[in-house]
Amino acid sequence: MIRYIFLLATAIVITGLVILVLNLPTQNTPAASKRQTDASIEILGDFSKNETNSDGLGSINNFIWSLYDDSMANGKSQGSIEVVAMPSALSSLSNEDNGVLKVKAIVNAGFPYPWAGAAVGDSVLPVEGKDISEFTNLVFDVKGSAGTYRVMSFDVTAARIPPSQSFQVSDQWQTIKLPLAGFIGLNTKVVSGFSFLAGPDEGEFEFYLDNIRVE
Question: pTM of the entire structure?
Answer without folding.
Answer: 0.79
